Automatic annotation (TrEMBL), chains A, B:
<dbReference type="InterPro" id="IPR008354">
    <property type="entry name" value="Glc-Fru_OxRdtase_bac"/>
</dbReference>
<keyword id="KW-0732">Signal</keyword>
<dbReference type="InterPro" id="IPR055170">
    <property type="entry name" value="GFO_IDH_MocA-like_dom"/>
</dbReference>
<dbReference type="Pfam" id="PF22725">
    <property type="entry name" value="GFO_IDH_MocA_C3"/>
</dbReference>
<dbReference type="InterPro" id="IPR036291">
    <property type="entry name" value="NAD(P)-bd_dom_sf"/>
</dbReference>
<feature type="domain" description="Gfo/Idh/MocA-like oxidoreductase N-terminal">
    <location>
        <begin position="40"/>
        <end position="163"/>
    </location>
</feature>
<feature type="signal peptide">
    <location>
        <begin position="1"/>
        <end position="28"/>
    </location>
</feature>
<dbReference type="InterPro" id="IPR000683">
    <property type="entry name" value="Gfo/Idh/MocA-like_OxRdtase_N"/>
</dbReference>
<protein>
    <submittedName>
        <fullName>Gfo/Idh/MocA family oxidoreductase</fullName>
    </submittedName>
</protein>
<dbReference type="GO" id="GO:0000166">
    <property type="term" value="F:nucleotide binding"/>
</dbReference>
<dbReference type="GO" id="GO:0016491">
    <property type="term" value="F:oxidoreductase activity"/>
</dbReference>
<dbReference type="InterPro" id="IPR050463">
    <property type="entry name" value="Gfo/Idh/MocA_oxidrdct_glycsds"/>
</dbReference>
<dbReference type="Pfam" id="PF01408">
    <property type="entry name" value="GFO_IDH_MocA"/>
</dbReference>
<feature type="domain" description="GFO/IDH/MocA-like oxidoreductase">
    <location>
        <begin position="172"/>
        <end position="291"/>
    </location>
</feature>
<keyword id="KW-0560">Oxidoreductase</keyword>
Length: 374, 374
């Protein structure tokens, strides 16, 4: 049985035993003799997000564990191997990455590289028969998103975008408010996602070739997400504006963008994203009340209120919840909370926002249907 | 000495004794033998704002008091006369209003009529030699604002717009943060001022002829104000968008408007106003911190926070503070916190927002200098 067949069986819920026997950690971490398992994850790209968020989170996960790494930096291999007990055979570089197909310890590849490398490594991972988590934004363009989705479909592997908030409890509560119409119909949503960047101007996020865009590609995607899960709808039209005040620092990426969404139910969305100011909030006004999160999209703990009072949920690592949910989707056929279609939809909106700006703040129509609504 | 000469002397700080002797209430309310006084105010228009806010506030004021009323509704005359002990001679209707010039009990006329009547009655009040408070928005157009300002200048009377928040302590604290650069330079300000209107669709606020516009003219003026006092600057450019979802209810006034301001220092302002959703907040991100008010512009008590902690000020009627400040300006030459130029500037911005919308969300340049900055 090759990985692809194995994964197919896994998806159908038939391969638990084989999996657990091939993943020793699973037993130590809650495997119960074949009914449950822990999938092995390989992190591709060992930058700060992998180092300070994902690897620590993978020490707490129950449905998956850190099994391998893929890095272009030789020195990191030994550090990570020692810190996390990763065997030599589960350590890859970008050149030999494709041989990961033969590694039964690795079930999921999590692509945590600069945006420009998301498509390439997600597609290579899929072709190696591995399930894929692709960090947000999913890719540089809608075209690349399509290529990732096709590669995963062709390979019969699962695909998720690294939208950790869909596993986060305050965000779940917001989605519940919307689904159950706790406060009636949503009339207005404000979504801010911004931080002030004053560090190294040569960081990849500020390099268009690597990032594909600035604030909008990085933080803006969160505000797009917020607006959508706060209304439960995809926008039907968008207008947008760009502001630049530090062109020497933001040499070729957008610094600040505002955008306005029209939703099919009549709600208005007001979006702010920036690499030049701090803002992190979500607020929705509804026909029978309101809800808000502030902060709404950092690593947490988030905080929130509604017309019914303060929201209180225990804090867990968002990344732990996210990766466990994706592993659960593979293992137990639970919902994929952030499928590839969601990432693609957000890139369609990103492209519409850039187009509105390029065309003098013109209104751009969107025909998204229910794409990516979960 | 006629009223005009009297007022001129008053402004020069010479007429305290004369004033107190003609305004008996002043003695009971803190007059100290001539150095202080209480000016008589006549409210023009006895709608809900006069009834539930201004008249009660005038029971608490120390520099002014309710001395007269001007109403087009005969039945209200007796009710108000009895409730507030207003003598027959201080009760006017719209026809005999101009004879108020001969009434020494009235120092200030507060115009609380529908927007379309602000200019006419402010000008008639000025020509009657009375100081003027004109409710916001100052008038239907910049042209009308100019006419009001000219009439007051010509008559040598003082003029303020009913911007109560300039006397409100949380708002004062925000202005102090900005002036003293407590948190450095302001980078971004979000200002929301909106409420959901579901009442009588025939109310004057939803009638363009009487209101001059919808959400923007009513609540939008607050968000414009917020953005300006949160940056301490006038915007140099604006873009705007309009949204309509209940055209049957909002038959001829704007329902929801978003606008984006560019400030000369580089700050970006993001404005939301609506008659179809509830939102009431101000947030500013600065180079060394942040501040916020929520609510930011209702009748209070307001509430606020900053990077230095929660803001806490005792609550007083905003209208009391506002009217006392204006009376103090007349009596003691203290600052006019909301001069006519401020109201005019806001109408220039309102007109630019409507123009941006009419011209397809186009960016409109503004050349306001320091107009109305207090």
């Amino acid at each position: 049985m090759n990985r692809r067949q194995f994964n197919k069986r896994l998806t159908q819920g038939l391969a638990g035993t084989a999996l657990v026997s091939s993943v020793p950690l699973a037993c130590a971490m809650g495997g119960d003799g074949g009914k449950k398992g822990s999938l092995g994850i390989a992190l591709v790209g060992l930058g700060s997000y992998s180092t300070y968020q994902l690897a620590p989170a993978l020490q707490e996960t129950v449905n998956c564990h850190l099994a391998g790494i893929v890095t272009g930096t030789k020195e990191k291999e030994k550090i990570w191997a020692e810190k996390y007990g990763i065997p030599e055979k589960n350590i890859y570089n970008y050149d030999n990455f494709d041989t990961i197909r033969d590694n039964q310890d690795i079930d999921i590849v999590y692509v945590v590289l600069p945006n420009s490398m998301h498509a390439e490594f997600s597609i290579r991972a899929a072709r190696a028969g591995k399930h894929v988590i692709c960090e947000k934004p999913m890719a540089l363009s809608v075209e690349e998103c399509d290529a990732i989705i096709k590669a995963c479909t062709d390979a019969g592997v699962k695909l998720a975008v690294g939208y950790r908030l869909h596993s986060e409890p305050y965000t779940q509560e917001v989605k519940r408010f919307v689904k159950e119409k706790t406060f009636g119909e949503v009339l207005y949503v404000s979504a801010e996602a911004a931080y002030r960047s004053v560090g190294n101007p040569d960081q990849w996020r500020l390099n268009r070739e690597l990032s594909g865009g600035g604030a909008l590609m990085n933080m803006g995607v969160y505000s797009i997400q917020s607006a959508i899960y706060s209304t439960g709808q995809n926008p039907v039209a968008v207008t947008a504006q760009e502001f630049s005040t530090r062109p020497d620092y933001f040499r070729d990426t957008d610094e600040t963008i505002t955008a306005q969404f029209q939703f099919p139910g009549g709600a208005v969305g007001n979006i702010f994203t920036s690499h030049n100011a701090n803002a992190n909030s979500l607020y929705a006004s509804c026909t029978r009340g309101w809800f808000s999160l502030k902060p709404a999209n950092n690593y947490g703990p988030l905080a929130g209120e509604s017309a019914n009072g303060i929201l209180t949920f225990p804090h867990q690592s968002q990344q732990k919840l996210q990766m466990d949910d994706f592993a659960s989707h593979i293992l137990y056929r639970t919902e994929n909370r952030a499928p590839g279609e969601m990432g693609k939809r957000d890139l369609i909106i990103v492209e519409a926002i850039y187009r509105s700006i390029a065309e003098g703040n013109k209104s751009i129509s969107l025909d998204l249907g229910n794409m990516g609504l979960v």
